[in-house]
Amino acid sequence: MKVKTATKSFIYDLTFEGLESWLTEQGEPKFRASQIYDWLYVKRVTSFDAMSNLSKGLRDKLEAAYEFVKLDEITKLESKDGTVKFLFGLYDGNAIETVLMKHNYGNSVCVTTQVGCRIGCTFCASTLGGLKRNLSAGEIVAQVVEAQKHLDQTGERVSSIVIMGSGEPFENMDATMDFLNVMIHGKGLNIGQRHITVSTSGIVPSIYRFADAQTQINLAISIHAPNDDLRSKLMPVNRRFPFVDVIEACHYYIEKTGRRITFEYALIGGVNDRPEHAEEMALVLKEMLCHVNLIPVNHVPERDYVRTPREDIFEFQRILQKHGVNTTIRREQGHDIAAACGQLRAKHMESGTR
Question: Is 250 annotated as a binding residue?
Fold first, then answer.
């Protein structure tokens, strides 16, 4: 098994500014950063030797300092609706999931930021087995590059990104922010900021930090309950960052950025999907610049939760809308290939691997 050495970082870890700084340290001109980014994210080469317009000396320096992220494709499942789910093996034997989704408005990639997750949401497969480690920025970047290579076969491109895969991106904040920097850079994959969404379970200090960053990147908050008691039962992270503090941080974000927040609400049959829950949620959100995305819960064999009946989903939506809260119901994709977060990795773990 190949193990990344302690003296080498991944080339995908470098932001454009970071690459310019490294080049300056090496006595190389800054304009080489544009050439290197072109090779990495436009031509998508996988070796430094392929960067033919760089001097042999610079290629040798790159080879000595950095290596490419190698994602071994363990499994690739393709759904009837066009969704593709990848299970990738990492250098240390761990495995992560990445999902490519096809919409009428383009191709979206859902990336993972951690191996496993420690947040502990009781309805999610990602948290099974706990948190193994954070991914580096480059390991997150590589997921998008691999998805783009898959699309290269048909002449398509990645048009949007959602950071909604396994893990909590705001507990891996530095790597997440560097990843975003690489994604939006005009010399790289050049994904529009408003076509990227970061989803968090409500890590309050990081919500403030994200607000202060003043990006145009969308923010989504996994909320799943209208009060502290119920949210703590569904999401143990609420004991660290109570519901009221999350909402206060959201108000700060909206005031600071002027941007709308999306609240994700997983409906669980008989648990958080009653009309009284909708009424209570509406009271919290009705004056806020926000949008609620209702998510019928995915069945996870290790959990006992059941899906909310279809008519109850529409009633929940009707109540929120009655109070002026913009609400939609998420369209399910990849249901036939276990495309929900953590499901494929959980099956892989059952086989005795990580």
Answer: no
Domain count, the chain: 2
Task: Round to whole Å and give the CA distance between 149 and 59.
Answer: 23
Residue among 159, 190, 216, 196 nearest 34 (CA)? 190
332 in catalytic set: no
Is there a binding annotation on residue 117? Answer: yes
CATH code of the domain in which 137 resides = 3.20.20.70
Say if residue 348 carries a ligand binding annotation.
no
**Residue 97 falls in the annotated catalytic set:** yes
Please indicate, yes or no, whether residues 257 and 327 belong to a single structural domain of this protein. yes
Write out the two tokens for 234.
């569904």
**pLDDT tens-digit profile, the chain (354 residues):** 344 544 589 999 999 999 999 999 999 999 999 999 999 999 999 999 999 999 999 999 999 999 999 999 999 999 888 899 999 999 999 999 999 999 888 999 999 999 999 888 887 777 677 899 999 999 999 999 999 999 999 999 999 999 999 999 999 999 999 999 999 999 989 999 999 999 999 999 999 999 999 999 999 999 999 999 999 999 999 999 999 999 999 999 999 999 999 999 999 999 999 999 999 999 999 889 999 999 988 765 666 788 899 999 999 999 999 999 999 998 765 555 454 555 554 555 455 555
Say if residues 290 and 327 touch (Cβ distance below 8 Å).
Answer: no
Decide if 320 is inside a domain.
Answer: yes
Q: 101 and 188: one domain?
A: yes
Residues 174, 141, single domain; the answer is yes
Q: Are residues 18 and 116 in the same domain?
A: no
Are 56 and 145 in a shared domain?
no
> Do 32 and 96 share a domain, yes or no?
no
Question: Which tokens in the block code for residue 73?
Answer: 């494709």
User: Active site residue: 20, 67, 97, 264, which one?
Assistant: 97
pTM across the whole model: 0.91
The answer for residues whose C-beta is within 8 angstroms of residue 351's C-beta and 6 or more apart is none
Range of the domain at 241: 72-350
